[in-house]
C-alpha cells in the first residue's frame, strides 16, 4: 500500500474510529522486520566493498530463519555513504549483499541510502525515509514494522516513522543511545525472540497452549457481560483502549469501572457500553483512608453490574488483588489480571508480563490471556470515538499543539522552556495552539504570550482530543495528550522526562521524536514531582531542537506532515534500492 493511499482508504472504511491501522485488517502487531546491516547482521567493516570480508554475527542466520518461519517479511535498511565518497562502487556493494544473502539467507528487500551527511537527503538515518520506503516495498506501513539496529540513528529513524525499535548495542554504541532506546536486547537472537514473544502475546491461542485458562471469548464464542477495570488517569485509560476493544469484540456488554480522573477518557473509548465511576484508594495517588462503608457501596455497585467475568487492567506497579476480592464478594465468576503476587483463589487467570512492554501491548496481552482477541477488522492501535469539531479560534488544521503541563509536575515542560519553544515555532512559520487544563490557565497564558492561541482551561478532554485531531503535530511531555495524538495518528515531539521508561509509556505506533536527557538523575524514579533541582532532564532542550524534530517528522509550517517518499530533497541524488543476488 502506498503511503498516499492510507488516509483515503481509512475514510472509505466502515469503521468509525480515529487512528485506524492502515495496513490490512488482521490484528497483527508486526508483519515485517527491518534490520540494519553493519554491526547488526554482520561485523562492521568500515566502507566495505569486499565480499570476502563479510562475517555474520553469531546466531544471525538461525535468528533470521526464525523470523522467516513465522511469516515475517525481512528488509535491510542501511546507510552506505561510501558510495557517495567513491570508496566502493555499486557493483561492489551488490557483491557484498549477494555474499550476505548466501550466508544469512534471502531478504525481501534491500534499501540503501547512498548519500553522505551533507547531501540533505531524506533517507539517511536518522531520517525516516528508509523505513517508509522499506514498508512500502514490503506492502505494509511503518507502524507494523520493527527495526533492529545497533546505534541511536536506527532508533530515531524507526521512531520518526512510527515503527518500533530494538537496539542491540555494540562497543561503538554510546551510553546515551542505550538510555534513550525504546527497547534494548543483548544480541540479534534475543531481539528476534522478543519480537516473536510480543507478537504471540496478543494471540489467545498462545496462552491456551501454555495452559492458561483462556477458553472463554476465543474461537468466535460470545461472552456475556464483562466488567473491565482501569482506575487510573486519563492517559492510562486511553492506552487500555485496544484491550477493551478486544474484550468488546466477544462480549454482549462491556462495563468499564474507572476512577474520576479517567472518566472523561473512558467516554471517548469505542467498545464501552456503560461506565461505573468509583475512586479506589489503593490506586488513587492521593487517597483518603479506606472507608468500610464506601467499600460496601462499591461491592453493591459491582454486584448490580451482574458481570459474568472481569478483566482488571493495572499499571506494572499496582496490585489487582484488592479489587479481585471485592469482585468475588460481588459474585463475579471469573477474574483475570496481571499479578506477580500470589493470588490464591482471587484470580482465575493470573497473567505475567515482562518489564518494559508498551502499556497498550501489556493490556492487550492480558485480554488475550483471558481469551479476548481484537476483531478481524480491527488492529493494534489507539482509537477514539469520532472527534467533534475543534474550537473555531484554532483556525484551519495543520497547527502545532503545545501542551506544556501535566498532572505530574515531573513530566511537564518547564514553563520558561515552553514559552521559548512557542516563540521558536512561531518564528519558523508554525501556527501554535497552547493547551492546558482549568488549573493551568496561568501557565498557558505565560507560554502563549502574544505569539500563540491560548486554549488553557477552555477545553474538556473531548474538545482537547478534537484540537489534537486537527493538528499537524503535538509537542508534549509524557502525559495524556501524547496518547490522544497517537490515537489520531498525529506526530509527536515528545519532551519525555525519564521518570518512567520511554518504551513503556512513550507514544505508541505514531511518528515520534524524543527529546530530553534520557540519562538524567530522575530516571526510573516514577517521581510525580521533579526530584532534581532545575528539572535538568528537559530544561536543557534547545527550542531549535523542537523545530528540527518537526522537520524530521515531515511537518511543514501550518501543514499536515508532508508525504515521506524516502527521497532526498529536490536536486539531490535518489535513494538506491540495491539488493543481493538477483535483487
Please, could you describe this protein's structure?
The strands form three sheets. The chain has a six-stranded parallel sheet, with helices on both faces. Strands 14-13-12-15-16-17 form a six-stranded parallel sheet, sandwiched between helices. α19 (480-487) links the parallel β15 and β16 (492-495). The longest helix has 15 residues, at 90-104. It contains 22 helices and 17 strands. By secondary structure, the protein is of the alpha/beta class. The chain is globular and about 80 Å long.
Largest sheet: 6 strands, parallel
Number of helices: 22
Shape: globular
Average of per-residue pLDDT values: 90
Percent of residues in beta strands: 5-15%
Q: Can I get a quick summary?
A:
This protein is α/β, with parallel strands linked by helices. The chain has helices at 6-12, 60-69, 82-85, 90-104, 129-137, 152-161, 175-180, 188-201, 204-209, 234-239, 241-248, 263-266, 292-305, 321-329, 359-369, 415-427, 441-448, 461-469, 480-487, 502-505, 536-539, 543-552, and strands spanning 32-35, 73-79, 109-113, 145-149, 164-167, 223-229, 251-258, 274-277, 309-312, 335-338, 349-351, 400-403, 432-434, 453-454, 473-477, 492-495, 512-515.
List the helices and strands and how they pair.
Layout: H1 6-12, E1 32-35, H2 60-69, E2 73-79, H3 82-85, H4 90-104, E3 109-113, H5 129-137, E4 145-149, H6 152-161, E5 164-167, H7 175-180, H8 188-201, H9 204-209, E6 223-229, H10 234-239, H11 241-248, E7 251-258, H12 263-266, E8 274-277, H13 292-305, E9 309-312, H14 321-329, E10 335-338, E11 349-351, H15 359-369, E12 400-403, H16 415-427, E13 432-434, H17 441-448, E14 453-454, H18 461-469, E15 473-477, H19 480-487, E16 492-495, H20 502-505, E17 512-515, H21 536-539, H22 543-552
Parallel strand pairs: 1-2, 1-4, 2-3, 4-5, 6-7, 6-9, 7-8, 9-10, 10-11, 12-13, 12-15, 13-14, 15-16, 16-17
